[in-house]
Every structure is written in structure tokens, then in C-alpha cells.
């Protein structure tokens, strides 16, 4: 077989291995090794795998992964999510569907200090959903709002997906963080507009009965006390990063220390809990870095086979064109999001798609934002819908059905599609801050 044929078989072989249940990292390493061995020989394959293990993980930048993961876990156990929701509930409860909008804003703020969608889904399913149900909102809408707005955790910096993309695309993590701000704000606004439209045009979808429950009318002094730790952590991490005081790794370290101080100050962290958080941080970090190693080897194998070059020539011919490729790519990752998790989609698709996007002349920072938004839609779509299943497992409600959460999240999938179209039409929303 030719190198091109071997590369093509490797792609389909990887899909087949994932389909039968092999972990994606192991599958990538296996097909990559076999692919290089068939194109060259076993010695070259072994040498390349050794070089990849050294080259892909030796950078100082990779320290950012455990630091931001640890910060997110510390923030989650310290009760910052509940305080964030309380603040926005106090500010917005008199607005139509105000608790839904408060959930979106709380998720946006919480995302800026965690960077993981699943953390947002877990926290707000326990905080926001019971409060919305108490005030007459339908369970379908309440869980749908939490599922929908949880995706902000992977778009608003610091974001684990943006870090992974930056590594795979060889882009600056700082630039990707800057690029995520505008789209994150846009998506938050689109979600709020969706909630207001539903409240006025589809009231049965939003409200189950008249709101007669009393609100916890906390004073503005208490609001300030709840918001100060959140604001301080945001200023420390994002202010330090964007102000030029920290690089991304240093910002992660400062954020982890800040989150640790908050957790200790609130007495929500004992020795056993802290040890468990460190262990969980290590497990998440090792899994992410192993996947990056495997994806790097897969990318080099494909480059050796010539598959990306042939795909670029095919997609960029006049009959399809650059934007035809972009639309096909986004549709494919949305479909894949129905089946596998976000990081896996990026690890499979980016080694194939990035050379084509580069040949098309796309800004790779903008392309990364589109990729993250498209991938995140998969968190809300059946049958995989990781955010939906996270909410189901976090809710202590035996009557709650997964299908009910999926139906509640459907309007937010539509909102994300609308935001994706806007981001395609106006690339400057993603890139203007990176050019300042």
C-alpha cells in the first residue's frame, strides 16, 4: 500500500477501535505506530514515538494544566458557585425569567475561575435547579438552563479545551484565552435572549405555576461579601494574565493559591479533602497529557502519510472552497459530539483539519474558537450529552428523566448554532483582543 492509503486506513482503523471500546489514547498510539512501521519500519516507528514523548511534553507550558485543574476543584469545594448564584439572584429576581438569566450570568462568572463545563453543571444543578423549581419554573427548563449555560466553562478563559487546542495547533495559550472572551460574552447574551423569548412566547415551557415563593432577600452588604472572593480571584488570574504580570502558567499558579486561600478561609477544606483533590488533579492531568502525546504521534503519522495535504487539495478546490470545508468540518464535529467527548473529538479531528485550515488561510485562533463552540454543542445533544448526564447524576431526583433534560437543553443548542453563525460571519469578535 502507498503511504496515502496507509494513512487513510489508520483513520478508519482508529474510528473502529474507538467504536469497540478501546481508550482513544491507546487507539491513537497503536494505529500511529503501525502506520509509521508500515510506511517506514519498526525502528523508525519506535524512534518517532520516543521523540514524540519527549517533544510533546517537555515544555514548561504544560504546567498550566494541573494548576488550572486544581484551581477549579478548589473553587468548586469552597462554595463559590453558590455565592455567585446568590449574587445574581439578588440582582435579577424581579426580571422576567430572572432566575434563568441569573443562572447564565453565574455560570459565566464561575467559568472564568474554573474552566471546566462539568464543574459548572455539577454545582448549578444542585444550587440553581432547586431554587428555580421552588419559584414555579418547570424542571425541564431549570435543568436545560443549567446544561446550556454550563458550556460557557469551556469557552470563557481559563478553559481546558482552549489549552488543549493551543497545544495541538501550536498557538499561544494567552492568545486563545483572549480570543475566548468576546465569544463567551456573545454566547451568554444569546442565551439570555433565548430565555426571554421562551418566557414570553413559550410560557408553558418555562413556568409550571405562579411564583409565590419568597426570595432570600439578602442585603447589599451580604451581596458584596459573597462577591468579593469571586472578584478577587478573577482579578488575580485574568487581570494578572491580561495585564502582562503573569504568563499562563504563572496565572494558573496564582489562581490555585488564591483558590486555596478562599477554601481555607471558608473552612471548607480539611486534610483528607485536600489530598483527594490533589489525587483527582493528578488523574485529570495525566489523562490529558497522555491524550496530547497520543494526538501528537497521530498528527506526525498523518503528516508522513500525506493525508492532510491531499485533503487540503480536495476541500480547497473551486467546487467546495474554504468555507465549504469549514461548514463540513463544523457539521462533522457536532455529529461526533453526539457520540464521544469533547477532548477526544479535538484529538481526532485537529491533526486532520488544522493543515487544511492553514492552507485555506484561516486564522487558526478564530478556527479554534469555532471548533470549541461546535464541540461544546455535543455536551447538550443525545445520546452522549455529557453535561446532561452530569446533571442527572448530581440531582437527587428519581423522577427526573434524561430525556426531560435533553428537551430542556434543546433551545440552547439552537442558541449555540446561532452564535456559531455570528462568529463565522464576524471573525473579529474572536480576534480583536489578540490584535491589541
Form type: globular
The number of helical segments is: 21
Major beta sheet summary? none
Beta-strand content estimate:
under 5%
Low-pLDDT runs: none
Number of strands: 0
Helix proportion range = over 70%
- Structural class comes to mainly alpha
Rg result: 22 Å
State the domain count.
Answer: 1
Distance between the termini: 50 Å
Characterise this structure.
With 436 residues, the chain is mostly helical. The protein has one domain (3-435). It is built from 21 helices and no strands. α3 crosses α14 and α10 packs across α20 (402-425). The relative contact order is 0.15.
Main features:
436 residues; mainly alpha
Topology:
Elements: H1 3-19, H2 24-39, H3 42-57, H4 64-77, H5 80-92, H6 98-111, H7 117-134, H8 139-150, H9 160-169, H10 173-201, H11 203-206, H12 220-242, H13 248-265, H14 271-305, H15 307-315, H16 321-337, H17 342-359, H18 364-377, H19 386-394, H20 402-425, H21 428-431
Helix pairs in contact: 1-2, 1-14, 2-3, 2-14, 3-14, 4-13, 4-14, 5-6, 5-12, 6-7, 6-8, 6-10, 7-8, 7-19, 8-20, 9-10, 9-17, 9-18, 10-18, 10-20, 12-13, 14-17, 15-17, 16-17, 16-18, 17-18, 18-20, 19-20
Amino acid at each position: 500500500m502507498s503511504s496515502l492509503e496507509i494513512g487513510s486506513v489508520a483513520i478508519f482503523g482508529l474510528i473502529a477501535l474507538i467504536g469497540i471500546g478501546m481508550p482513544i489514547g491507546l487507539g491513537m498510539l497503536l494505529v500511529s505506530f503501525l502506520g509509521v512501521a508500515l510506511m517506514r519500519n519498526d525502528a523508525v516507528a519506535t524512534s518517532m514515538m520516543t521523540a514524540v514523548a519527549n517533544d510533546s511534553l517537555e515544555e514548561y507550558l504544560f504546567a498550566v494544566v494541573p494548576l488550572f485543574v486544581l484551581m477549579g476543584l478548589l473553587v468548586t469545594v469552597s462554595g463559590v458557585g453558590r455565592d455567585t448564584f446568590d449574587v445574581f439572584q439578588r440582582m435579577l429576581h424581579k426580571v422576567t425569567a430572572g432566575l434563568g438569566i441569573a443562572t447564565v450570568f453565574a455560570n459565566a462568572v464561575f467559568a472564568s475561575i474554573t474552566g471546566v463545563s462539568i464543574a459548572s453543571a455539577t454545582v448549578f444543578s444542585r444550587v440553581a435547579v432547586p431554587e428555580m423549581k421552588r419559584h414555579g419554573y418547570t424542571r425541564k427548563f431549570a435543568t436545560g438552563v443549567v446544561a446550556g449555560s454550563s458550556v460557557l466553562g469551556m469557552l470563557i478563559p481559563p478553559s481546558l479545551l482552549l489549552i488543549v487546542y493551543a497545544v495541538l495547533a501550536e498557538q499561544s495559550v494567552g492568545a486563545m484565552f483572549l480570543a475566548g472572551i468576546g465569544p463567551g460574552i456573545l454566547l451568554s447574551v444569546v442565551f439570555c435572549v433565548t430565555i426571554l423569548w421562551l418566557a414570553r412566547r413559550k410560557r408553558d415551557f418555562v413556568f409550571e405555576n405562579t411564583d409565590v415563593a419568597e426570595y432570600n432577600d439578602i442585603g447589599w452588604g451580604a451581596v458584596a461579601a459573597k462577591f468579593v472572593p469571586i472578584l478577587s480571584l478573577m482579578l488575580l488570574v485574568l487581570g494578572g494574565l491580561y495585564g502582562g504580570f503573569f504568563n499562563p502558567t504563572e496565572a494558573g499558579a496564582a489562581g490555585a493559591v488564591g483558590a486555596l486561600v478562599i477554601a481555607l478561609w471558608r473552612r471548607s477544606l480539611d486534610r483528607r479533602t485536600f489530598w483527594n483533590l490533589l489525587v483527582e488533579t493528578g488523574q485529570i492531568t495525566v489523562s490529558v497529557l497522555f491524550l496530547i502525546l497520543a494526538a501528537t504521534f497521530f498528527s506526525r503519522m498523518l503528516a508522513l502519510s500525506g493525508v492532510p495535504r491531499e485533503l487540503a487539495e480536495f476541500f480547497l478546490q473551486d467546487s467546495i472552497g474554504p468555507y465549504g470545508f469549514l461548514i463540513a468540518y463544523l457539521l462533522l464535529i457536532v455529529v461526533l459530539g453526539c457520540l464521544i467527548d469533547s477532548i477526544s473529538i479535538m484529538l481526532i479531528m485537529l491533526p486532520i483539519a488544522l493543515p487544511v485550515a492553514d492552507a485555506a488561510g484561516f486564522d487558526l485562533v478564530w478556527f479554534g474558537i469555532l471548533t470549541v463552540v461546535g464541540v461544546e454543542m455535543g455536551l447538550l445533544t443525545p445520546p452522549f450529552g455529557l453535561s446532561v448526564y452530569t446533571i442527572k447524576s448530581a440531582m437527587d431526583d428519581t423522577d427526573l428523566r434524561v430525556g426531560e433534560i435533553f428537551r430542556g437543553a434543546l433551545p440552547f443548542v439552537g442558541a449555540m448554532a446561532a452564535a456559531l453563525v455570528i462568529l463565522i460571519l464576524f471573525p473579529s469578535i474572536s480576534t480583536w483582543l489578540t490584535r491589541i
